[in-house]
Amino acid sequence: MKKILLFLPLLFILFFIPERVWEEEWFGFDTLIRVKVWGRNPWRVRKAIKEVKEEFSGLEKLASPYIQSGKIPPELKEMIKLSLCVASQTHGAFDPSTGPLMELWKRFKEPFLPSPQDIEKAKKFVDWRKVKIKGDSLILPPGFYLDLGGVAKGYAIEKGIEILKKHGIKKAIIDAGGDLGIMGRKPGGWKIGIQDPRNPSGILDTFRLEEGYVATSGDYQRYFILDGVRYHHILNPKTGYPARKSISCTVVGKNGALADAIATAVFVLGPDGMDIFPEVSIYLVDREGKVWKKGKHFSTKN
């Protein structure tokens, strides 16, 4: 009885502490990560955010852009299997084996244009159908290695949200370079803006989201311009060159990793790829600047 009596005042105090917002940011996955958490218990919130940071750091190291054959941990296996599933559904428009091509382009961290001959050589080491998983081992042909850049950030956001829920957090936002994980209801829903791909400070459109994940792929995120031509980091695996059918693709769904992969795949395919994934909402801006919408989040102007 004494323990119960001692514990009750603490519950009483926490109940009447007003809800406040904790924010923290750090750099990871080549972008700025922001976590915003609503709560009353500072110890619980700080511990949860600390675990989210550790998870992001661990997954970033795990999903390096040079994944080779060998034993793989469960998280990596999960990311690879999801990537192969999307690759199959899109007939290779999304391909986790584009590592050699990305390396050839110097990962678009400097203005470098590979020769057509070198691109053709690198393409020989790109084929998702040759990626095999047996038990807890990844099996790749010689010269192949994986780059999970199209799925890892969304996967990390998803795992971060799971950690926050595990700690009893009811409302939070994880923002990783514009890709979002949102939990906790808000009257009228959360209002999300879609960036104008040709105006960094402009908003092209808005929509409302109750809970879920938002992922965007765009030709404005990592690119260089050479002789008046924009070369961005989202490659068409079949050509070895930057995809040219879209300039921006935003996907809203219930799975962070899947939304991330679909955004890349539909960006490559353009409007023709919008009906492949009925479970998500898609907002696509094609190469001519025309907007294409699909799904409940974009059915009406918000």
Could you explain the architecture of this structure?
31% of the residues lie in helices and 29% in strands. The longest helix has 21 residues, at 42-62. The protein is α+β, with helices and mostly antiparallel strands. The strands form 4 sheets. The chain has an 8-stranded antiparallel sheet with strand order 1-2-6-7-10-13-14-15, with helices on one face. A 3-stranded antiparallel sheet has the order 3-5-4, with no helix packed on it. A two-stranded antiparallel sheet has the order 8-9. The chain is built from 7 helices and 15 strands. The radius of gyration is 21 Å and the shape is globular. It has 2 domains: 18-63 and 158-298, ApbE-like domains (T-fold); 70-139, ApbE-like superfamily (T-fold), CATH 1.10.3980.10. The chain has helices at 2-16, 42-62, 74-89, 99-104, 116-123, 152-166, 256-269; strands at 20-28, 31-39, 70-71, 132-134, 137-139, 171-176, 179-183, 190-196, 199-209, 212-218, 223-226, 229-232, 246-253, 281-286, 291-294.
Q: What's this entry about, in short?
A:
By secondary structure, the chain is of the alpha+beta class.
CATH topology of the largest domain: T-fold
Give the total of domains. Answer: 2
- Point out poorly predicted stretches: 1-15
Strand content: 25-35%
Largest pleated sheet: 8 strands, antiparallel
The CATH homologous superfamily of the largest domain is named: ApbE-like domains
Oligomer: single chain
How far apart lie the N and C ends? 55 Å
Q: Structural class, judged by helices and strands?
A: alpha+beta
